[in-house]
Fold these 3 entries.
Entry 1:
Amino acid sequence: MLVGVMSDSHDNLEKVRKAVEIFKERRIEVLLHAGDFCSPFVFMELKKLQSICREAFGVFGNNDGDKLLLAQNSSGFCKLQNGIMKLELDGKRIAMMHYPDVARELHDSGIFDLVIYGHVHKKLVEGDRKKLLNPGACSGYIADEATVALVELRDMSVEFVKL
């Protein structure tokens, strides 16, 4: 199963559109967003993935002020929550949050096959069978480049894609 992973889109609709194009081309099955969508209108672009994406999940970040409107605009496409989201996809246990403070501890616990976080705007992948992943900042703001990640859950391979 191919999963598209992004974080810190910060209303940069040009970069979100590029991410959506890449995710469509690669035919992701699930979208994971590690927070800082910012404004609810970002879902106008993300919902364009509904034709190929069977599920989407996201967590709120520190810049996601209007959580109610974000949740309303994501309705029918993306399940959102505060804090740590735990889920299972294709037999893999996944934890996702915005903040890095406990991400390493969750990864080091060995409980999860994939731990995803955002916030710091720096792409990172560590681990072999069990991965710690930051997809970088989709927006490209305060980052060297705008990036998203693709994770193939079958073999836990990670590919960063520059937008």
Note: Residues 2-162 form a domain with the Purple Acid Phosphatase; chain A, domain 2 fold (CATH 3.60.21.10).
Entry 2:
Amino acid sequence: MNLQFMKAGTPDALVLNSISKQAFDSDVEVGAASPGGPPGYQSVSFHVKMARMNHLFKLADENGVILGGAILFRQGDTLNIGRIFIDPQHFRKGYGILMMREIEALYPDVRVFTLDTPVWNKRTNAFYTGLGYSEVKRDADLVYYSKNR
């Protein structure tokens, strides 16, 4: 399958919002106390705003079907991966790994990539450490990671 990772436009916000909601709500299967996600994860207006600000990205197949998305924030030589999400029907197919590699490749001049994920989420913590991200700190809710280039 030929996949493309690219900036998403405002017309993509509705589909990406639906995928975001499904993906984050599925975390109840890996330890979340209840369905939910980061701020705006189920808000169409939030995703439209992120698209307008050029922070919203999509992973799509050769037919234009959106499989997942990401929200990225660049500040100087640091890129914060605000979130990534994959449609649950496409979990465990390597798309998350592909998306993370595409994010890193899209920003060749970024020196540090940062992100955070809930402490309780064993799936995402293992995923990020498996991709070479190192824990830099944690609090009661979140584990903070970074990866230097």
Note: The beta strands are 4-7, 56-60, 66-75, 78-86, 112-118, 134-138, 142-148.
Entry 3:
Amino acid sequence: MDHYLPKEKFPRLAYCMDNLLPSCDACNTIKRDYSPPDLPPDSVVDPALAGRAYVPEEVLSSLAERLVEPCVDEPSTHLQFDPVHHAYRGLTTVGETTRIRMFPDERAADLARLSDHVACIVETGPGHEEMLETLVGLVGRRFYVEAYAAFWRTVFLP
């Protein structure tokens, strides 16, 4: 689990369910202690406590700079995956901030290798879905495997 607003800056939200997200180790590490710069530390509190409650929809909509919060935002509104360049494109200010913070350029090399593996599998032709499922079982990253498979099908399959 990851804290959308870091518990170090917002300790009263450490156990607030609205502030918790599922996160892989890699994303949790990349995000680290990021918090929106225009949200003062500890300016919101757990709804169970007295004071201004943390209602993500209200708090996040008032911020000029922040990351996509997938429990509140529809990620595809803010980000678009480009399988050719192995990168995301920010469609909004929130998407661009998220792209810069969460998808640094050094991750593109890892995604390019994954794309190569998927291309080899799709190029084998019919029946490649089972091999793609095996790849997902080995490396995870289902979203990327499916996005690359869709792209490579347009290249290799009629």
Note: The chain has a mean pLDDT of 88.
